[in-house]
Amino acid sequence: MIDRIEDESLESIAARLGERMLQLGLRLTTAESCTGGWVAKTVTDIAGSSAWFDRGFVTYSNAAKQEMLGVASETLDAHGAVSEPVAKEMVAGALARSQADTAVAITGIAGPGGGSVDKPVGTVWFAWGMPGQQVLTGCDRFDGDRDRVRQQAVRVALEGLLEHLRARV
């Protein structure tokens, strides 16, 4: 379980992300489930984000993940929506269905219900990808109520994008 110090606002992180995206000449897409578009909202709160943000996919249901992002029903059946394989397929689908150069995917259980022994409330899978590069993934388990879990997931998604872009020249 990771407890993050939240000194920096989501808006500030998104602004730094935008600066980096502009420096690299890249465009972003998001594929969100449990965060319901919160990453896209945070990014588009930044004036001028249309220069580097392409689109966001909110795929809350399994059917939406399949229809909008091409997540395979076999993957959902074998691993469940909250899993590394689904997060990877969400990133791949978002990149394939957008004009973006980088993507983030988020799928998790924000609560208060829906958790299990294997996947308790607060479990969130992330994936970050770029065409032709290995997809990076991570899983966190957050404490707190539904809003708190979602907010922490947005923070990790944005920070992960910045980290992913640091490796780029």
What does the model show?
- Residues 1-5 have low confidence and may be disordered.
- β1, α2 (38-44) and β2 form a beta-alpha-beta unit.
- α1 (10-24) runs parallel beside α6 (146-166).
- With 169 residues, the protein is of the alpha/beta class.
- The protein starts with 9 loop residues before the first helix and ends with a helix.
- It is built from six helices and five strands.
Total strand count, please?
5
Rounded mean pLDDT score: 94
The number of helical runs is 6
| Poorly predicted ranges | 1-5
**String of helices and strands:** HEHEHHHEEEH
In percent, how much strand structure appears in the residues?
15-25%
The biggest sheet, with number of strands, parallel, antiparallel or mixed sense and barrel status, is: 5 strands, mixed
- Rg on CA atoms, Å: 15 Å
| Global shape | globular
How far is it from the N-terminal to the C-terminal residue, by CA? 32 Å
Helix content: 40-55%
Which structural category do the helix and sheet elements fall into?
alpha/beta
Main-sheet strand order equals 2-1-3-4-5
Write the layout of secondary structure elements.
Blueprint lengths: L9 H15 L3 E5 L5 H7 L8 E6 L3 H8 L3 H7 L4 H13 L5 E7 L14 E7 L6 E6 L4 H21 L3
Keywords:
alpha/beta; 169 residues
